[in-house]
Amino acid sequence: MLPQLNSAFYTSQVIWVIVCLAVLIMAFKKSFIPRINAALEKREEFIRRLGSDIQTLETEIMVLKDKIREIQQEEIRQTSAIIRDATKKAEVMLEEQMKNLKAENEDLINGTRRHLREEIKGLGQVFKLQIDITAGILFEKLFGPMAQR
């Protein structure tokens, strides 16, 4: 029979197993378990700190988002005001230009009218002269011989 299956050795084997297990359990309790607990506690503390840091960062992000929104709204207000002012200035300038153009057009129209009147007077005098000449020629043709006497 094999020695490990011999029942005479069971008692000593059980005692040695108990002794070895007790030594291993004591070693774990004194050395390994405290190290593992310390590492776990450090990890938990690190996670807690990260959690609080995350909450702090989230609040800071919210504050920054609010500030950004306020700045954007202020920029929109300022831009709107600038656009309104520019539009008003452009309207005023456009009105002034329109007045100037109307005045220039009126001056051109009046100058053209004066010129046309002068031209018409000149043409009237030319027609009058032509009528006088035509009348003189007709008179000479009709009464030519008599007019010479």
Offer a concise description of the structure.
The chain is mainly α and 149 residues long. It is built from 1 helix and no strands. It starts with 9 loop residues before the first helix and ends with a helix.
> What is the count of DSSP helices, taking H or I runs of 4+ residues?
1
Round the mean pLDDT to the nearest integer and report it. 88
How many domain regions? 1
Poorly predicted regions: none
Q: N- to C-terminal separation?
A: 191 Å
* Structural category: mainly alpha
Helix content: over 70%
| Total count of strands | 0
Relative strand content: under 5%
Q: Tell me about the biggest sheet?
A: none
Using only C-alpha atoms, the radius of gyration works out to 60 Å
Q: What does the oligomeric state look like here? A: single chain
Shape: rod-shaped
Order of helices and strands: H
Report on this model:
The protein contains one helix and no strands. The mean pLDDT is 88. 0% of the residues are buried. It is rod-shaped. It has one helix at residues 10-148. The protein has one domain (3-148). The protein has 149 residues and is mainly α. The protein starts with 9 loop residues before the first helix and ends with a helix.
Question: Could you list some keywords that capture this structure?
Answer:
149 residues, single chain
